[in-house]
What we know:
6-stranded mixed beta sheet, 14 helices
Amino acid sequence: MPAYDAVVIGSGYGGGVAASRLARMGLRVAILEQGRLWRPGDFPITAKARRKTTRLTGRAPRLGDPTGLYYLSVGKGLTVFGASGLGGGSLINAGVVLRPDLNRLRKAGWPEAVIGDGLLREGLSRAETMLGVAPVPHPQRFAKYAGMRRAAEAVGCKVQLPPMTISHRPGPNAAGVMQYACKYCGDCWSGCNVGAKNTVGITYIADAVDHGATVLCESRVQMISKAANGWAVVVQDLSGENACAPRRIEAPIVVLAAGTLGTTELLLRAQEHGLKLSTKLGENFSANGDDLVIASGLDEPVNAIATGFPSQAPRGAATVGPHSMALIDLGDEDGPLWIHDGTMLTVMAGLAPVKNLLQLNITRARKLLKDGIYGNEMSRTQLLYVVAHDDASGRLKLQNDRVIVDWPGYSSAPERQRAEQKVKALIEGVGGVFSPNPFTMRAFGGNRIIAHPLGGCGMGDTVENGVVAHDGRVFDPAKGPTGVHDGLYVCDGAAAPSAIGVSPLLTITALAERAMILVAERLQRKLDVTSAPLRPLRDAAM
């Protein structure tokens, strides 16, 4: 077994940053990722293929391929939708990049050092550069942008074009990986088969590999514990003949970046096996105010059904655009509230007749079946994603040795209901019909599905009010209020002590950049973040 100076568990935004920056410091880095390497052209495009690579976890029976791309973690009151694979959540997210309101985070109890020392702002800038963010050019080409503009004007707002982690022209990214231009098929949140999405795998992870890091995919971490020279990580190999053969890796530095659920699960399990951790572990879980609603019966077509690449739509179907290209800001004194346009995958659009049948709307169900998912009825239907805020009162806990979300009151929380009413008024203001989150129907599981899980290992000033310190190091209660476990870090969404109030990818990435700046200072290592040599897309992150 090779010797490593640092082991990074997970390869999403936080793990990618940690791997890149530790490797650039000259450390020998191993990246452990439970999922597989997904290249452009590998992502599933049919309903059958998507089902095959989806797994259930949490309270549900554990079904599906443990290395599959998509997962649904079923909890009490919430179901979390996420991804496994080299690049983590960046493989399937909308890629919307927004800077957080630092004053709001300060009021929400984030450590003052994070807000005030300037390193988070530096991290934000580094993340924006590395992820190559830019808004969609010429948005007027897309009907769903026009729909968002009409909705914004109906409530006296202006539609906004956020930067996104999507390449709109071919060329090298900041890691030197050659990429293709977006085809605007709308499949961003099921995996980009074009190769236009600036995922972590072809930015930060590719950069880490260029600087000597080793990537070990299909490697599920079962346990972390203290070792004589740092930390021990027990890993189960999920690939081929070696499946179920655990092995042990030791390193002075371990970075937990397995996603909010995965990171918290590993620390909860370590706590059960004797590792001294804060009593706050598992608390202050936030859904970032997430919700999903549908606007149907709109006066004008919005053409928001993803076509995929290669296209699954009939010849001559309208170009869709990126999954989320436009925003409406409905925030007020009660808190932030962002409305994102979205696209429906074919599998979700195909459920529309079923939903109407279950609601005994037989006439509409028949019409939807007759027209098909690219027909007139569905062309005037818009999926909207809501990002707002909540009180982070959810909990993460172990059940049958797997982490679950425990938040039965999320749907009835006043913040979420207030957001829903404002979105309903917006939709009805442009003559549309509002439908709440369809997955709250019992036939579809009954849980609200969210995509921005945060917390469980929140930052704090002391071990009494947080699980990790402002720099990402895990508190050790045996060493006093501010003592830490040397070499053990949390660098992902689990460290957020509250809702962020905007799509969280940039904030998570910037927090990890900030943590690595401080690691370099602590280790007295140079951290150079200049660009890398060019490499073709197919060779990225290998």
